[in-house]
Design a protein that fits this description.
mainly alpha; two-stranded antiparallel sheet
Length: about 575
């Protein structure tokens, strides 16, 4: 999957009110509305310039990968943390929050900004030196990921070559070498990651949370037991269809690679973490994109539905180069339309889907969130809603009808359709099981960081993904997943985003097209863009993710539409 930068500056929150006591007394103001307006104005004047500097520094560090740029990134984040950690402003804010909770601020936009500000400041009410340690350690880990390249027999492999080798080679010895080398970054960052987990937990306990995982869920308006209940439901829903699909995949893989099914190991799958569906069917889904101009295709598609992205592409960095982050993300630099995508495009279906994904993030940004909204509310409702939108658009890269409408030729359409439909179904199931691993591992890691994390990781991989652990291997493979290091307690939102994507798509099928969801393409219909603007983008952060889901889809977040999508 893709690495997407999101500020963990939090949505939600009355559930955390009063969790900590400030050293400075907090008193409810005589005029809460005036006090709130004054605080918001002062915050924006102070933080907006700092955030702009930090966002640009973060972009430059990921594009260039140099020590100097990463130092600028770290310095910028330290200034933000220092500003948000000041106890006196937080005490003032606590007083305003108390009044807001008592219903003394009637304007919903002001009340919502108070809510967001409270959580933003709350997260930073820990010892300043601890915040600096966390930032420095996280910065070092992120830079290590950016500059790491797998080495096989003295040759350096960029991420694209790792993926292409795992997809194409029939030599198990070479596949194993490449897979193990791709995991080598885990060894590089393991010690720093363990220290980072310790520091994050220390910060969380200073704020009276059980651990960092508990803190991040709470601050992001998510309830831990509710989340596990949802994922347990998804486990029950996907267990048998996944086992059936994997049985078919394993049979095809084993035949192609000349091994027995019970000899299949992690390096026999086409993705280093088995989070993508292997290309095991007769038709090659990459072929239509072999000579395609992927950014131009994206430009044409998004413009055709009334969500143009040319200004994003003009600011983006899309080709592989040394030192650059090997992943993909979208970032909104200023909440005023400077939106950019970092990518490393190769001409294949994976990168077609990835660009549709990242540009999906881009249209759910200040490009289409109204400028009239206050600065604090000019962003996506939640991590899961922006991931949902990105995944909603990403799915089209496996649709023959979509590909042909984009003017590309598909050889042997019947074979392509069969391969694409099975791959899409398998992808939803495989990704669901992979997300089970990520959620449950991170929860376990922060609850008990002293346990054998390598064993905990592979126990979950075997249980949920049915992938065998390599015999006698004792390496920090969990640490090779960048999200665990640099986007902690984030990954479950991808799965919740898949549910959101399915629900929104089904609603578009019903309201815009009056057709079955499986038959609906968006190409050339600006009513799709109108729907997305009005029902998803324009509310910005004025709504919680639960409120937005109900507003956009007329239902609470649930797996019903997702189940229909993978059941066909």
């Amino acid at each position: 999957m893709n690495t997407d930068r999101r500020n963990f500056l939090i949505t939600g929150g009355a559930t955390v009110a009063g969790l900590i006591a400030s050293d400075v007394s907090a008193q409810e103001p005589a005029d809460p509305v005036a006090a709130a307006k004054e605080f918001i104005t002062a915050h924006e004047a102070k933080m907006k310039p700092l955030e702009l500097i930090a966002n640009k520094a973060w972009w430059d560090a990921n594009v260039l990968g140099t020590d100097a740029e990463f130092q600028k990134k770290e310095d910028a984040q330290n200034k933000i943390d220092a500003a948000l950690s000041e106890p006196k402003p937080f005490a003032t804010l606590k007083g305003i929050k108390t009044a807001a909770d008592a219903g003394k601020i009637k304007d919903p936009l002001i009340a919502r900004q108070v809510e967001l500000l409270y959580l933003m400041y709350l997260e930073k009410q820990v010892q300043p030196e601890l915040l600096k340690k966390i930032t420095a350690k996280a910065n070092a880990v992120e830079q290590a990921f950016n500059v790491y390249r797998a080495k096989i027999d003295g040759q350096e492999y960029p991420d694209s070559k790792v993926r292409s080798t795992l997809k194409q080679s029939v030599d198990s010895t070479i596949r194993k070498k490449v897979w193990e080398a791709s995991k080598g970054v885990g060894v590089v960052v393991e010690a720093d990651l363990k220290e980072l987990v310790k520091l994050r937990n220390e910060a969380a306990t200073q704020l009276n949370f059980k651990n960092f995982h508990h803190m991040m869920l709470t601050l992001n308006e998510q309830d831990g037991p509710e989340l596990i209940k949802l994922f347990d439901e998804l486990d029950d829903l996907t267990k048998k269809p996944f086992a059936d699909a994997k049985g078919d995949i394993d049979g095809r893989l084993a035949k192609k690679l000349g091994v027995a099914v019970d000899e299949l190991m992690p390096w026999h799958y086409h993705d280093p973490f088995f989070q993508e569906s292997p290309a095991v069917f007769d038709a090659n889904l990459d072929t239509p994109f072999a000579k395609a101009d992927i950014p131009a295709l994206c430009s044409t598609f998004y413009a055709s539905i009334g969500l143009p992205v040319d200004r994003v592409l003009a600011k983006s960095d899309l080709k592989e180069k040394k030192g650059k982050s090997p992943h993909a993300f979208c970032t909104d630099i200023d909440r005023e339309g400077d939106v950019r995508v970092l990518a490393n495009i190769v001409n294949n279906e994976y990168w077609m889907g990835t660009m549709l994904h990242e540009l999906g993030h881009s249209v759910y940004s200040s490009l289409n969130i109204p400028a009239k909204l206050p600065y604090l509310l000019r962003g996506e409702a939640h991590i899961l809603t922006t991931e949902g939108v990105a995944m909603q658009f990403e799915r089209f890269s496996k649709s023959r009808a979509w590909i042909e409408k984009m003017g590309l030729k598909v050889e042997n359409p019947a074979a392509f359709d069969e391969a694409a439909s099975k791959t899409q179904r398998n992808q939803l199931l495989i990704f669901s099981r992979w997300c089970q691993v990520m959620l449950r591992f991170e929860k376990a890691m922060y609850e008990d960081p002293a346990q054998d994390l390598n064993k905990a990781w592979w126990d979950l991989v075997e249980k949920y993904q049915q992938v065998k652990r390599p015999k006698d291997r004792n390496a920090p493979d969990y640490a090779a997943k960048i999200h665990i290091c640099s986007a902690p307690v984030y990954y479950h939102n991808y799965m919740m985003g898949q549910l959101f994507a399915s629900q929104v798509h089904h609603m578009i099928a019903k309201e815009v097209f009056g057709a079955p969801p499986s038959k609906v393409l968006y190409n050339g219909d600006k009513k799709v863009g109108d729907f997305m603007k009005k029902r998803v983008f324009e509310p910005g952060r004025t709504m919680t993710w639960k409120q937005l889901t109900k507003f956009a889809t007329e239902e609470e977040l649930n797996p019903k539409a997702f189940a229909k999508d993978f059941q066909g």
